[in-house]
Amino acid sequence: MKNSIHPTAVIDPSAKIGEGCSIGPFCVIGAKVKLGNNCNLHSHVVIDGDTHIGEGCQIFPFASIGVIPQDLKYDGEDTKLRIGVRNKIRENVTIHLGTVGDNSLTQIGDDNLFMVGAHVAHDCVIGNGNVFANNATLAGHVHVGNDVVIGGLSAVHQFCRIGDHAMIGGMSGVENDVIPYGLVMGERARLAGLNLVGLERRGFEKTDMKILMKAFKTLFMGSEGTFKDRLAQVSVDYKDNDVVMFMLDFAQADNARPLCQPK
């Protein structure tokens, strides 16, 4: 398939453009960029740096992809951005290269939607099937799992982890890790429960959801012992349930940030 490239687009001769791509007016593509097949850059898109974008991605006007990070320690090192397939990147989205302070890599999976003005800072690692609503913002080194929804005007603190199937309410400030299946909200986000609507939509069994609720109440709303004591007890009581154990494995992993808790 032939490419459709507008005559006003500026493409470095060293850039690698796949087949069937559409590159609209006034797009600028740097020398180290690799664009997969069937990508559509609508217009006024800037892609720079050592950036690889998978096939079938759509990028809308005024998105800035693969530019240098907003990190004062960055000094021109050779770092990377890798974006998977079928991502939709809407207007004014910014996604930055990694830094040598981490793995020199910002990485995004497949089938994500980044709505208007979303920002992905350096060294973030993002899974698949996530939705970032308008002006959702990730600081550096944030890890986001799969099938997560981050509400509009929300901000996530650097080094936080957001577990699979979590939901972050709009206008939330997330300072701590969010467990898989968690629902958080608030100016300083608190754990408000489980994302039951999201789990139902994604086909979770009702039995598993009921068991998960019991485990959640014991762990986060129980009064016996310390949180560490309850974590150990729930690990024993629900050792045969994969859904619960996935949440517990996340909760027990070492990380720079504590877990988001109810208040």
Q: How does this model look, in words?
A:
By secondary structure, this protein is an alpha/beta fold. The chain folds into 2 domains: 4-141, UDP N-Acetylglucosamine Acyltransferase, domain 1, CATH 2.160.10.10; 200-252, no CATH class. Helices cover 17% and strands 27% of the residues. It has 4 helices and 28 strands. The protein has helices spanning 196-201, 206-221, 227-237, 242-252, and strands at residues 4-5, 10-11, 16-17, 22-23, 28-29, 34-35, 40-41, 46-47, 50-53, 58-59, 64-67, 80-83, 88-89, 94-96, 105-108, 113-114, 119-120, 125-126, 131-132, 137-138, 143-144, 149-150, 155-156, 161-162, 167-168, 173-174, 182-185, 190-194. The strands form 3 sheets. The chain has an 11-stranded mixed beta sheet, with no helix packed on it. Strands 2-5-8-11-14-17-20-23-26 form a 9-stranded parallel beta sheet, with no helix packed on it. An 8-stranded parallel beta sheet has the order 3-6-9-12-15-18-21-24, with no helix packed on it. Helix 2 runs antiparallel to helix 3. It is elongated. The mean pLDDT is 97.
TL;DR?
With 263 residues, this protein is of the alpha/beta class.
CATH H-level homologous superfamily name of the largest domain? Hexapeptide repeat proteins
Summed over residues and divided by their number, the pLDDT gives a mean of: 97
CATH class membership of the largest domain: Mainly Beta
Structure classification: alpha/beta
Number of helices: 4
Q: Which residue ranges are poorly predicted, with pLDDT under 50 across at least 5 consecutive positions?
A: none
Shape estimate: elongated
Main sheet strand line-up: 1-4-7-10-13-16-19-22-25-27-28
